[in-house]
Amino acid sequence: MKVALFFGSFNPIHMGHLMLADFVRQNTEVDQLWFVLSPQNPHKKQANLLDDYTRLEMVNLAIEDDDNLRVSDIEFSLPKPSYTAITLAYLKEKYPSYSFYLTLGEDNLNTLHKWHKSDEIIKHHPIIYYPRHTDNQKEKSNEFLAKAHLIRCEAPRIEISSSFIRKQISEGKECRYMLPDKVYSFLKDSNFYR
């Protein structure tokens, strides 16, 4: 089983996440894509971050009808902050017959060499990367990336972000078409992000 891992806070999960996940799964060699829900990203502030299990429920609502997409709460039981290398090692131990691929935006390739145990990541895990709009595209660390198994996935660029959706909701604006129907209903029935 080849599994692409898509790490994120998914605060909230939106149509951009789902379109990217489906595109990666259909246009690369992987069999499934797992959303790995991160309780605390060491590179992001935790302001406005909903409870772990609330975000997990939203991802489950978003993908419950698709057998090719899964969600993993594996990082909930790992030390905080969450480091990708530790999560990958734990998943490999739990599922020894699976091959895990890392899914990243192209801009993340620029800083991958600074990640915790980055050499271990690229040694054991292919990296699927997709184009991402960025104003300051820096030179990639070619020497480091030359050792990686990189797979470019020409996914369409979708300019939707969770932070934009949170801002829209906080301002009382509508974002129905940016969210999966069940997630939209879930958020509408709650006071989250308001």
TrEMBL record:
<keyword id="KW-0548">Nucleotidyltransferase</keyword>
<keyword id="KW-0808">Transferase</keyword>
<dbReference type="GO" id="GO:0004515">
    <property type="term" value="F:nicotinate-nucleotide adenylyltransferase activity"/>
</dbReference>
<dbReference type="GO" id="GO:0005524">
    <property type="term" value="F:ATP binding"/>
</dbReference>
<keyword id="KW-0662">Pyridine nucleotide biosynthesis</keyword>
<comment type="function">
    <text>Catalyzes the reversible adenylation of nicotinate mononucleotide (NaMN) to nicotinic acid adenine dinucleotide (NaAD).</text>
</comment>
<dbReference type="Pfam" id="PF01467">
    <property type="entry name" value="CTP_transf_like"/>
</dbReference>
<keyword id="KW-0520">NAD</keyword>
<comment type="pathway">
    <text>Cofactor biosynthesis; NAD(+) biosynthesis; deamido-NAD(+) from nicotinate D-ribonucleotide: step 1/1.</text>
</comment>
<comment type="similarity">
    <text>Belongs to the NadD family.</text>
</comment>
<dbReference type="InterPro" id="IPR005248">
    <property type="entry name" value="NadD/NMNAT"/>
</dbReference>
<keyword id="KW-0547">Nucleotide-binding</keyword>
<dbReference type="GO" id="GO:0009435">
    <property type="term" value="P:NAD+ biosynthetic process"/>
</dbReference>
<feature type="domain" description="Cytidyltransferase-like">
    <location>
        <begin position="5"/>
        <end position="167"/>
    </location>
</feature>
<dbReference type="InterPro" id="IPR014729">
    <property type="entry name" value="Rossmann-like_a/b/a_fold"/>
</dbReference>
<dbReference type="InterPro" id="IPR004821">
    <property type="entry name" value="Cyt_trans-like"/>
</dbReference>
<protein>
    <recommendedName>
        <fullName>Probable nicotinate-nucleotide adenylyltransferase</fullName>
        <ecNumber>2.7.7.18</ecNumber>
    </recommendedName>
</protein>
<keyword id="KW-0067">ATP-binding</keyword>
